[in-house]
Structure formats: C-alpha cells, structure tokens
Amino acid sequence: AQSSYIGLQQAIGRGRKVLASFSEKAVQEGAPYVLPPVHGVVQVRDRNSLADATLAALEKLKADGFLLAVEFATTQDLGRRRFALADVICCSPGRGGETPSAFMLKAKGLKARLLAHGVASTEEAEALKVQGFTLFTGPFLKEAENLPERKLTSLETSRFTLLRMIEQPEPDFAALSEAI
C-alpha cells in the first residue's frame, strides 16, 4: 500500500490525473474523496444499471470537480443517464463487440473523451486516434521483456537457503551453523 501511495503522490505531483475504479457501494459511501478532486477520475465498476443512490453520488462527485469514467458496452447504452455524466468513456476496441466513435458521441450530444484499453502497438494506437480515441492504456509503447531462465550459482543458492532459514519464526541455529 505504501508503494502505491508514493506512486500516486508522484503522479499527482506531476499534475497527472489518476483513474481509480470503485464499487457502487464505495461510491455511495464517499470513498473517491480520498483523491483530490482536481486529479481524480472516478470509475464505477461496470454494471448494466446503477442504483439511483449511486447516480446521485456520481452527480455530487462531478459537482465537486471530479471527472467520471464509464465503461462502454453497446451503443444502446449511450442514451443512459450515466453516460450523460461521463467525462471519459472506456472500452476495449477490437475485442469483439461495438466500439464507440467520436461521431457517435457527437450524434448523442455527449462531450466525453474515449479511452481505449489494451492497446498493443503504436499502429493500433494511431488507427484508434483516427476513430476519435484520445486516451490509451496497454503495452503499446514497450512490452515487458521475457528473459530466458538462468542457473543460480552455488553461492546464490546458499544465500537463498540461509535467508529461508533466518526468516523462520524460530530459526534452527544448529542447522543454520551447519549451512554456513
């Protein structure tokens, strides 16, 4: 938790927005107020219909300066009240199903920005920009590199054995001295 808090503080310190997902119950209880309104983007975990109490809480969050993110399912959803509140509409384009476009949003009178989840390449990001997406998540800039297995040296193996023995609630000092 401490490392997450430090990362959050660094992002906020650089003037970044922080998207945090909350359950419906957490939104109703005011949990998003742990974020500063200027830097907080609140996302309610996707449900087909939100309770009136949740929608009222979202309206209050929006009035207090938070941005709201809503998960997209189908174009039929765009007329719902939660989309009228949305500043960001999130979806996973190309994963089967419909994808909203900037044109669709304008046709419905919505001013939300589009966020694409799981963008795998810069080419995909460029294609999505043409469709009106302006926000992206995913490994499109750099993917994690898988390193091949390597054998541990006998010294490293001994260190791990010693650490494992020391970490026990009640270390066996006889076995520890023998391992050393």
Quick overview:
The chain has 180 residues and is of the alpha/beta class.
How would you describe this protein?
The protein is α/β, with parallel strands linked by helices and 180 residues long. The protein has helices spanning 2-13, 24-28, 52-63, 81-85, 102-107, 122-130, 154-166, 173-179; strands spanning 18-22, 40-44, 67-71, 88-91, 113-116, 133-136. Strands 1-2-3-4-5-6 form a six-stranded parallel beta sheet. The longest helix has 13 residues, at 154-166. The model has no long low-confidence stretch (mean pLDDT 80).
Topology:
Blueprint (H helix, E strand, L loop, with lengths): L1 H12 L4 E5 L1 H5 L11 E5 L7 H12 L3 E5 L9 H5 L2 E4 L10 H6 L5 E4 L5 H9 L2 E4 L17 H13 L6 H7 L1
Parallel strand pairs: 1-2, 2-3, 3-4, 4-5, 5-6
Main β-sheet: number of strands, strand sense, barrel status?
A: 6 strands, parallel
Which residues sit in consecutive blocks of at least 5 with pLDDT less than 50? none
| Number of beta strands | 6
Looking across the biggest beta sheet, what order are the strands in?
A: 1-2-3-4-5-6
Distance between the termini: 35 Å
Tell me the number of helical segments per DSSP (H or I, 4 or more residues long): 8
Helix content: 25-40%
- In one word, what is the shape? elongated
Taking Cα atoms only, what radius of gyration do you get, to the nearest Å? Answer: 24 Å
Structural class computed from helices and strand pairing: alpha/beta
The overall pLDDT, averaged over residues, is: 80
The secondary-structure element order is HEHEHEHEHEHEHH
Strand content range: 15-25%
